[in-house]
Task: inverse folding
């Protein structure tokens, strides 16, 4: 079963290199394994990534205004703020991949002034809270990997 998350915002990053710089700027070591000049708008499917020697990739797909509005309308119990004009959807499987999504999503929300929505738990984070959530996930991922290797 795959899990999902979404970043909602009003602007997009242009390239994977710009996204990678945003990840570094907030202090994470996640590496997006793609050409720096690859356009984010051209993404659709698996984006390989790694952190601390572990696979942390995920599927991501940018969506436009109509799909961003549809994301907001699907969960009537959550106040998403907005209006949002664009979204970046993530799909992932596995603990290390969830860590990758949380880091990449937090950085994307931070640099675009957006919000991060973790749909499994129904949790909505502004950019600063998303960064804190990603840091917590990173710590939990290290513990999980250490326990599974012991």
Result:
């Amino acid at each position: 079963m795959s899990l999902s998350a979404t970043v909602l915002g009003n602007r997009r990053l242009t390239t994977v290199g710009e996204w990678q710089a945003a990840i570094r700027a907030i202090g994470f070591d996640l590496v997006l394994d793609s050409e720096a000049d690859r356009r984010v708008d051209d993404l659709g499917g698996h984006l390989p990534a790694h952190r601390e020697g572990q696979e942390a990739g995920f599927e991501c797909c940018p969506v436009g205004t109509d799909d961003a509005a549809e994301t907001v309308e699907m969960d009537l119990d959550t106040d998403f703020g907005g209006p949002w004009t664009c979204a970046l959807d993530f799909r992932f499987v596995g603990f290390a991949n969830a860590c990758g999504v949380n880091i990449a999503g937090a950085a994307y929300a931070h640099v675009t002034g957006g919000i991060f929505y973790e749909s499994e738990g129904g949790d909505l984070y502004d950019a600063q809270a998303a960064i804190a959530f990603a840091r917590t996930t990173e710590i939990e991922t290290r513990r999980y990997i250490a326990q599974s290797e012991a």
Notes: The mean pLDDT is 88.
